[in-house]
Amino acid sequence: MINFNFHQHSLFSDGKMPPENYVKQAIELGFVAMGFTEHSPLPFETYYALSQQREQEYMNETNRLTRTYADQIKLYRALEQDFIPGVTEDFSSVSTRLQLAYSIGSVHLVKPERSDDLWFIDGPERQKYDDGLDQFFGGDIRKGVTQYYRQINQMIDNEAFDVVGHMDKIKMHNAGRFFNPEDSWVQELVDETLDLIKEKSLIVEVNTRGIYKKRADSYFPDHSTLKKVQQLKIPIIISSDAHLPEELNLGFAEARQHLLDLGFTTIMFFNGSNWIELSL
Ligand SMILES: [Zn+2]
Ligand SMILES: [Zn+2]
């Protein structure tokens, strides 16, 4: 049983409940550890990110919960840091200011070259994805997907963080319409990113949210990418990217079995100072 989760969102970002509800649920589930990973503050209005004005409140509340529940569960303050080149604050400044235990690095907004536009590839609205692809990339999916992976690579090259979040989220709103993830040009992009991840000794997140929300037909990342992750011996975590307490362990048992079938034998666990390998 996987009794920990290092990726979830509360009311401090776009989750639906106060953080304490997640703690109580985690204890009920028999979890031994959990990380708070709100979306990092962004220098413009969004509905989903932690606001800069609430950083101190986030620190105070996570400190309070960590102390209050110390004898029942290990809790960590972290962030899912958004990377947009030339726009987002560097991860290490944010980590220092908020005294983060670890960071997940993710791309949700893709910035085309030589433009200040931002293509929102996540969120509930498929139309936004389609419109952005048309407006910012002239409808050229190859351009859009290439820019997405380029931005992830830039994040890996330039930022300090621990886990690559939902690596192929770009496929979610594609939903089999514009590109086939098995196409060789996509696989080449995936290979390049995996090589960088390996080089920098980062962890790949196996994110179950697309499956249990029925927004994707595979984990982020998908089956063929996970096979490569296994061959390259890149470490992984399983997380649910919960936006509700009851989502904390959704899809874990199936994901674990899927990974065992692929030949994975270990999973990473954060022990307060380091990521350590546990048997799967
Ligand atoms: Zn995310
Ligand atoms: Zn998330």
Brief summary of the model shown:
With 280 residues, the protein is α/β, with parallel strands linked by helices. The chain has one domain: TIM Barrel. The protein is built from nine helices and eleven strands.
Q: What CATH architecture would you give?
A: Alpha-Beta Barrel
Distance from N terminus to C terminus (CA atoms, Å) equals 8 Å
Shape: globular
CATH topology call: TIM Barrel
The poorly predicted ranges are none
Order of helices and strands: EHEHEHEEEHHEHEHHEHEE
**Total strand segments:** 11
Which strands sit side by side, in order, in the main sheet?
1-2-3-4-7-8-9
Structural class: alpha/beta
Instruction: Report the C-alpha radius of gyration, rounded.
Output: 18 Å
Explain how this protein is built.
- The protein has helices spanning 19-28, 55-68, 91-97, 126-137, 141-158, 184-199, 209-212, 223-231, 252-262, and strands spanning 4-5, 33-39, 74-82, 103-106, 109-110, 119-120, 163-164, 203-207, 236-239, 266-270, 275-279.
- The chain is α/β, with parallel strands linked by helices.
- The chain has one domain: TIM Barrel.
- The protein starts with a strand and ends with a strand.
- Bound molecules: zinc ion (2 copies).
